Amino acid sequence: MNDAAQQDDGTQDGDEGSMSRRSVLRTTAGVAGAGLGLGALAGGTASAATPARSPEDTAAEQASVPKRQGRTMAGVPFDRRSTVRVGIVGLGNRGGSMIDLFLAVSGVQVVAVCDPVKDKAQRAAAKVTAAGQPAPAVYTNGEDDYENLCRRGDIDFVYVATPWDFHFQMAKTAMLNGKHVGVECPIALRLDQLWELVDLSERTRRHCMQLENCCYGRNEMRVLRMAHAGLFGDLLHGAGAYNHDLRGLMFDPDYYEGPWRRLWHTRLRGDLYPNHGFGPVANYMDINRGDRAVSITSVGSPALGLAEYREKHMPAGDPSWKETYIESDRTISLVQTAKGRVIRLEHDVSTPHPYSRINSLGGTKGVFEDYPARIYIEPDHTNDSWGDFSKYQDWDHWLWKEHANPPGGHGGMDYMLVFRLMQCMRLGLVPDFDVYDAATWTAPVPLSHLSIKAKGAPQQIPDFTRGEWRKARSGMDSEDPEKA
Question: Which pLDDT score, from 0 to 100, does residue 59 have?
Answer without folding.
Answer: 43
